[in-house]
Design brief:
The structure holds three protein chains of three kinds.
Chain A lengths: L7 H17 L9 H7 L1 H10 L5 H10 L4 H13 L16 E6 L50 H7 L27 H9 L3 H12 L7 E15 L8 E15 L12 E8 L3 H14 L15 H7 L2 H9 L6 H23 L1
Chain B lengths: L14 H16 L5 E2 L13 H10 L5 E6 L6 H14 L2 E2 L8 E5 L12 E5 L13 H9 L4 H14 L10 E3 L3 E3 L9 H4 L5 E6 L4 E5 L5 E3 L26 E5 L6 E5 L2 H16 L1
Parallel strand pairs in B: 2-3, 2-4, 4-5, 5-8
Antiparallel strand pairs in B: 1-9, 6-7, 6-10, 8-9, 11-12
Helix pairs in contact in B: 1-2
Chain C lengths: L2 E12 L2 E12 L3 E5 L6 H8 L7 E6 L2 E2 L4 H10 L2 E4 L3 H4 L6 H11 L5 H14 L16 H13 L5 E5 L7 H18 L2 E6 L2 H7 L2 E6 L2 E7 H6 L4 H12 L1
Parallel strand pairs in C: 3-8, 3-9, 6-7, 7-8
Antiparallel strand pairs in C: 1-2, 1-4, 4-5, 9-10
Classes of the chains: A alpha+beta, B alpha/beta, C alpha/beta.
Chain lengths: 358, 286, 251
């Protein structure tokens, strides 16, 4: 006699125990430390902080360890944890002009005030597997040191704006939207769009940015400037009324310079696409800047024809935590609905067969 | 209030978040069938796995509540177990598999066969709250259509089904009109369950986490499945009796028993089926 | 005869370009009025303003004495699916291409509350016949139709709820000359039979002569001449109208 399937609870517990075992791998090998991940897989930590929208290197490294290196899963862990944290306020806007630079490059000028600073980059490395790295414990040569640029380094876009060649961004004192508190609504203002993109999936931003270069909403981009470094975060507690420096965060900023034909009422000017992300994430910041510019199509009087210009399409599908949940939920049982479809299909086929027979 | 799991507030969400969700629920009850946007939080379960329902349940749950969680009508499906465990862990509330004993029933894809009462609340997990989403993907546009009660498009879809197939082809997530005003997705329950929503004594709450919408049907509210006068709505079930309890009016799962076409039909609602079997055994013993 | 639609003092500029300059127009029940002019003259803009799709910078549009702007979007949309109809130049803008011909005609009926499948289908069949689309095509998708058929289907879809006023924007624009003539005949026949008021925008003087009781000539956003169609075409007063008429005669 048939007995309804039982034992789901035991199966879940056993599956999770097995997961723990596979996470540890071969127990004869030393266990990976969270500090090791934080130090030696820094770019993974950066990506998890960005997509998890929570700047905490230790928590991100822990999440990477717990997720066995699945970075979307790790970002998800970080987001879920963040839900439980008490929000006691918002920081003052950070000032990227005062960034302590590790890297700063411009593709639009050969040399410029502040100079080109290559910094720690994969650019110009030859992508040859380095078998020396497989031999652990080999001594490492220290990198030569040069003096970092001192003081504020002017932004390329600012240099252009002074000449009237770059459209000025009008400072807006209105409180920006907060996606972690208010759901997305359309039309979405630029601060909300940027917030969405800043924590969007890197692959999605990359692919959409790429599509604009291949003609789907093209806007002729130049990298005005990419800067990577640390900025101070200030917080002004209402009860004190003055700003307190609560620490530094690492960020990457990208400003793209894009063409704009101008109109009868406005002389031609460059316009900008903007990317700003947690940690060192140039690919993400560049993708974001391209998509930001593409999403300004309507505001700048361009036709909205390409996916990257379609705000609802882009902003509703950029979040990989939402995306992975909904795609993966297809694994959950759907047999009740499937049963309805089965019966429906059988009924429709039966009446069609009858019609044919008559 | 503290929870059994140290370090988290009762039912996981902080009090400010719960208040925000309760306000959304109150609005939803005040405008039956209308979707209320809310600031859904990231939950420790993935989007699409019941985060909306979980947030609604977490916001209405009290320490004296008795919670029942079902998925596909069963208490023992893995996701139902997982959600029940979550609430045991973060709220320490009593749980039950008996529909009659529950004060809150959280469900995915079914409404229990046993009629719910005034002192019960049913919370539906909703993947896509927008009934027009398959016809018009743009939210800005569907919101306008709801505001203007412009639902011709939905009827066109049903017309097309009949013209092409002779029947309305929607078998689950079958659209309903709530209180004669708002077109609403009943969540992906089978159309068979739709009539249970009409004038139900229990409060019905719907949570969509990923899409960040909450909606509700207050007790005893009219819920009509869309249809045509000459092609009336038909609740669909497999035309069999349950092999375990003999029920001919419950919704059935089809279970494959071998690879040679062998199959059997059993109740999808495991509590309902179990109670009927127990009743039959008791009657036989007397 | 009281006017259905009355507009006065309409002004609209796109940046430096005047699209409408102090335009006034009215149309009465059962009357066919043509707005003619070359492209860029403002005639399509006028149609969009009169049908409430676009707001003017100044001026008012009254529908049966009610101010269009004051009545709100919900009421305007209701008008658009009851007392009004709009026939677009490109049938793709006025049809649902992924919905069958019958569904396209039935949509307006369902939008105003029809809930009997059999009756909806019967009316759809009747209207397909009236616009000379073969009944056997009722379940086919419009994308399998020729351009002329699509345009006739759009007209059926628009007229099925018996509107009082139909806006038409170059309805024969994209069609072959032979197909144009047949469509114009159809529009003339239906508007007389149903007592429709039609406001038609066209650059085709011959079409205007065939259909319209009255006509307005537009140039650079201004109405330069208006009157009974035969009078305007046989005895044009304004130099621009004279040019327009003579260029047709020469062609």
């Amino acid at each position: 006699m048939y007995v309804a399937v039982k034992g789901g609870g035991r199966a879940i517990s056993a599956a999770h125990a097995w997961l723990d075992e596979t996470r540890r791998g071969d127990p004869s090998l030393p266990e990976l430390g969270v500090a090791q991940i934080e130090q030696q897989m820094g770019l993974a930590v950066d990506r998890v902080m960005a997509e998890g929208s929570c700047h905490d290197r230790f928590l991100a490294a822990l999440a990477i360890k717990q997720s066995k290196g699945d970075l979307i899963e790790a970002a998800f862990l970080l987001r879920a944890y963040r839900t439980t944290l008490v929000r006691f306020g918002a920081s003052d806007p950070i000032e990227t002009a005062a960034m302590r630079l590790r890297r700063r490059i411009s593709a639009t000028y050969k040399d410029l005030p502040g100079g080109q600073v290559l910094g720690p980059t994969f650019d110009y490395t030859h992508r040859l597997l380095d078998f020396a790295l497989a031999a652990e414990g080999a001594p490492r040569e220290a990198a030569p040191e040069a003096g970092a640029p001192v003081g504020e380094v002017p932004r390329v876009t600012e240099l252009l704006a002074r000449e009237g060649l770059m459209q000025r961004e009008v400072p807006d004192d209105a409180e920006p939207g907060d996606l972690t508190r208010q759901p997305l609504a359309f039309p979405a203002a630029r601060p909300v769009r940027l917030q969405n993109l800043a924590r969007g999936d890197e692959g999605f931003l990359l692919a959409l940015g790429y599509s604009t270069q291949r003609g789907y909403g093209g806007n002729h981009p130049f990298v005005g400037e990419i800067r990577v470094g640390h900025v101070a975060v200030d917080f002004t507690p209402p009860e004190l009324g003055f700003a307190i420096d609560i620490g530094d965060i690492a960020i990457t900023e990208c400003q793209m310079v894009n063409q704009f034909a101008g109109s009868r009422t406005e002389p031609a000017q460059f316009t900008r696409g903007y990317g700003l992300v947690f940690g060192h994430g140039e690919r993400r910041a560049m993708g974001m800047a391209l998509v930001d510019r593409a999403l300004r199509a309507q505001e700048l009087g361009e036709d909205v024809t390409a996916p990257a210009q379609d705000a609802e399409f882009v902003l509703y599908h950029s979040d990989n935590i939402e995306a992975t949940g909904f795609v993966e939920h297809l694994k959950l049982p759907h047999y009740v609905d499937f049963q309805s479809e089965l019966e429906n299909l059988r009924t429709i086929r039966r009446s069609a067969m009858q019609d044919l027979a008559e | 209030m503290t929870a059994p799991e140290t370090g988290y507030t009762f039912a996981y969400l902080d009090d400010a978040t719960k208040r925000m969700i309760r306000r959304a629920i109150l609005k939803a009850v005040a405008i039956p069938g209308h979707q209320i946007p809310f600031g859904a939080r990231e939950m420790p379960l993935p989007y699409g796995w019941g985060t909306g329902g979980i947030q609604v349940t977490a916001s209405i749950l009290g320490p004296d509540d008795v919670l029942k969680v079902i998925d596909q009508g069963s208490d023992d499906t893995t996701n139902a177990i997982s959600i029940r465990r979550f609430f045991t862990r973060v709220a320490g509330v009593a749980t039950t598999e008996r529909t009659a004993d529950a004060t809150i029933v959280q469900t995915r894809h079914r409404i229990p066969e046993r009629a719910l009462r005034e002192d019960q609340v049913i919370v539906y997990q909703v993947p896509q709250p927008e009934p027009l989403s398959k016809l018009e993907p743009r939210r800005a546009e569907t919101e306008r259509l709801h505001a203007l009660a412009d639902y011709g498009l939905m009827h066109v879809r049903l017309y097309e089904d009949i013209a092409r197939l002779g029947h309305i082809a929607k078998a689950y997530d079958y659209p309903v009109m709530v209180n004669g005003r708002y077109l609403m997705s009943p969540s992906p329950i089978p159309a068979f369950d739709n009539p249970k929503m009409d004038r139900m004594p229990a409060l019905q709450l719907f949570g969509a986490g990923r899409e960040k919408r909450i909606y509700a049907i207050p007790p005893y509210t009219s819920v009509r499945s869309l249809d045509f006068e000459d092609h009336p709505f038909r609740p669909i079930r497999a035309p069999h009796a349950c092999e375990l309890c003999g029920s001919t009016d419950s919704y059935l799962d089809e279970v494959l028993t071998d690879d040679a076409g062998g199959r059997m039909f059993v109740c999808s609602d495991t509590d309902y089926c179990g109670e009927r079997q127990a009743g039959a055994n008791k009657a036989a013993a007397e | 005869m009281t006017a259905l639609l009355t507009a006065t003092g309409l002004d609209l500029r796109f940046g430096a370009i005047p699209a409408l300059v102090d335009v006034a127009i009215d149309i009465s029940a059962g009357e066919v009025v043509a707005i003619v002019g070359e492209s860029g003259s403002g005639k399509t803009t006028l149609l969009r303003v009169l049908s409430g799709m676009m707001a003017p910078d100044a001026g008012t549009v009254l529908w049966q004495g009610q101010d269009l702007r004051a009545m709100g979007e919900a009421a305007r949309r209701r008008l658009m699916r009851t007392d009004w109809g709009f026939v677009h130049q490109n049938p793709r803008d006025g049809l649902r291409l992924n919905v069958s011909a019958g569904g396209n005609v039935g949509e307006r009926l369902m939008a105003v509350g029809a809930r009997h499948y059999g009756n909806i289908r019967e009316q759809a069949l009747d209207w397909l016949k009236r616009v000379e689309v073969d009944a056997s095509r009722i379940d086919d998708l419009p994308r399998t139709f020729s351009g002329g058929m699509q345009q006739r289907l759009q007209i059926a879809r628009t007229l099925v709820t018996r509107p009082k006023l139909v806006f038409m924007d170059e309805p024969t624009g994209g069609l072959d000359v032979s197909v144009q003539a047949r469509l114009l005949d159809l529009i003339r026949g239906l508007s007389r039979e149903l007592g429709l008021a039609v406001l038609i925008v066209t650059h085709d003087i011959a079409a205007a002569r065939l259909l319209a009781d009255r006509m307005l000539v537009m140039r650079r956003g201004e109405v330069v001449e208006q009157g009974l169609t035969d009078r305007v075409l046989d005895d044009p007063q304004h130099p621009y109208t004279q040019l327009l008429v003579s260029s047709v005669l020469a062609a």
